[in-house]
Amino acid sequence: MRIAALVLVLATSSCARSGTPSPSEAPSPTTPPATATVTTPSPTPTATAECATRVLGAMSEEQRIGQLFLLGLANDQLGTAELSAIRTYHFGSVWFVEQSTSGAPAVRSVADAVQALATAETTASVGFFVAANQEGGIIQSLSGLGFSTIPSALDQSTVDPATLRTQAALWGHELLNAGVNLNFAPVLDVVPPGTDAQNAPIGALQRGYGHDPATVSAHALAFMRGMADAGIATTGKHFPGLGRVTGNTDFTAAVVDDVTTPNDAYLAPFRDAVAAGVPMVMVALAKYQKIDATELAVFSPTVMRQMLRVSLGFSGVVVSDDLGATVAVANIAPADRAIGFLGAGGDLIISKTVAPANAMAAAISARVSSDAAFKARVDDAALRVLRAKVTFGLARCS
């Protein structure tokens, strides 16, 4: 695919423009309106866990299942299909899927309409994660009035990390003011030197923070910390790395990494991000021959339980890459996508489109009713999502 067409389609994927604004050149952040539902993280770990457990206990099983979904908003609007799905299946998070130039006020209007659905009946009054792909460069979903032009990750890697953290905090405040509280960033994949052109998902699009683990860690973590300074949750991606594949899983089936090992040096940015407290980690839709030769990473207990949970010690939310519209899972029934991801240790399902999300939620509900072990797994995943929501002010116990 020619790069121009690729850019247009990538802007709608789960995973643009160049130029590095200085903090003084970009729009100054303003105080979020009183309707904002996200605040700078402050609860202690114990208080967060206790509150999340109380919130979970007050939820119906269908509401718990709904917390496991991040639903795409077609045309970046809360349409009738999305509204119906949220009310019927109690979906608890959404994301902007398009490359929009409408500006912060328009985005805020949609985000506020979504948050208005956080009622006792729909979500047990738990607020929504409202997400966007705001990496920078080609992958900047939201632009226009109120949004700086964010440079690509590769360009960000040339900036001193302390300065980058300050800039990322500004970009985060812009998201917050637009009602967005979750960023599908930073990219933690390492693309080997000299291979950018051959690496379709990351290198060819300048989405990586450099070409060695140390550089990627330093700059990706600066971006993550700046976003956290602004009260924005982040998602490190795409575990265990897309830096050494050829195809893009959004558009290509059977993408394989035949290099990465369970103790690979290129995993260092993920390890560092986990140690630094990244709240979410997104798992790739590729297959890793030297880790689990039978399953895509997003369906692999070895990848999610052994490597991410045990080896790296990650206790946050494990997020899928898009299980709704990507070519990588097109030949797998939606029900099997959801059951496979959760059963292997995942927590939060991204679906760009409504129909697969509805089918996945129905399948989870049916399985829960007949499988006590799977029900416990669903409740555990919902609890992890709720801990994150308590941390970011979307669920409260007082």
Low-confidence stretches: 1-41
Measured by DSSP, the beta-strand proportion falls in 5-15%
- The average pLDDT is 91
CATH superfamily: Glycoside hydrolase, family 3, N-terminal domain
**How many discrete structural domains?**
1
- Quickly name the level 1 CATH class: Alpha Beta
Strand order of the largest sheet: 12-9-7-6-3-2-1-13
Identify the CATH architecture: Alpha-Beta Barrel
Q: Give the strand tally.
A: 13
Q: Compute the gyration radius: what is it?
A: 19 Å
Report the order of strands and helices.
HHHEHEHHEEEHHEHEEHEEEHEHEHH
CATH topology: TIM Barrel
Helix content: 25-40%
Give the class from helix and strand content and strand pairing: alpha/beta
The number of helical runs is: 14
| Quaternary | single chain
General form? globular
What profile does the largest beta sheet have?
8 strands, parallel
Word description of this protein:
This protein has about 400 residues and is an alpha/beta fold. About 60% of the residues are buried. Strands 12-9-7-6-3-2-1-13 form an eight-stranded parallel beta sheet. Strands 8-10-11 form a three-stranded mixed beta sheet, with no helix packed on it. Strands 4-5 form a two-stranded antiparallel ribbon. The termini are far apart. Residues about 1-40 have low confidence and may be disordered. The protein is globular and about 55 Å long. Strand 1 (about 70-75), helix 4 (about 80-90) and strand 2 form a beta-alpha-beta unit. It contains 14 helices and 13 strands. Helices cover about 40% and strands about 10% of the residues. The chain has a single domain (about 5-15, about 65-390), classed as Glycoside hydrolase, family 3, N-terminal domain (TIM Barrel, Alpha-Beta Barrel). It has helices spanning about 5-10, 45-55, 60-65, 80-90, 105-115, 120-125, 155, 160-175, 215-230, 270-275, 300-310, 335-345, 355-370, 370-390, and strands spanning about 70-75, 95, 130, 135, 140, 180-185, 235-240, 255, 280-285, 285-290, 290-295, 315-320, 350.
